[in-house]
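Re: beginner question about structure tokens

> Can someone show what the tokenized structure looks like for a real chain? I only ever see the sequence side.

Sure, here's an example I had lying around. Input first:
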Amino acid sequence: MISFQIKDVKNCMAKLLASDTFDSFQLVEATITTYNTFIIDGHLVKEFFNDVHADEDDQESALRDMGYSNWSDMRTLCFDLIKGKKTPVNFKFILQSNPATVTSLLQNGGSSITPTQLKAFILNVKYENGNLHLITAVSYQTFLLDKSADAIWDTAIKDFLTKHRIDFDCL
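And the corresponding structure tokens:
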């Protein structure tokens, strides 16, 4: 687990909320405190998609099979709750990588851990008192002594931030 303190909050927020930079992630949960506290549970409600019609499009069919909402589908809602003349009191987004990313990172990272041994690679995004932190985490299906997945995920996020020109300090 690594905590990245973001140096240019405005730049990172623009990439998080107003561009597709983080769109490969899924939203597990969002808590946004402005004039109220808004809590969004990112779990998709399967019953909503059970009423399948012949005219169902491929996107809706794919959504029905996922566990969490795509960040790309939720970021506009989150942005609408945050934007305004006043900055939010705080917010926290719990994002996770999609299953294909888990598989790819583990294979390319040379880990002996299999994708079935992991629940998810997690990225916590926390804003409070004008500071923005991105914190990595790995959720395992069971206890493992091998922590190579943690190192792989930490490196992947460092590379992601560098690639997208998001300046940070490691804490």
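Each token stands for a local structural state, so reading them left to right follows the chain. The longest strand covers residues 118-128.
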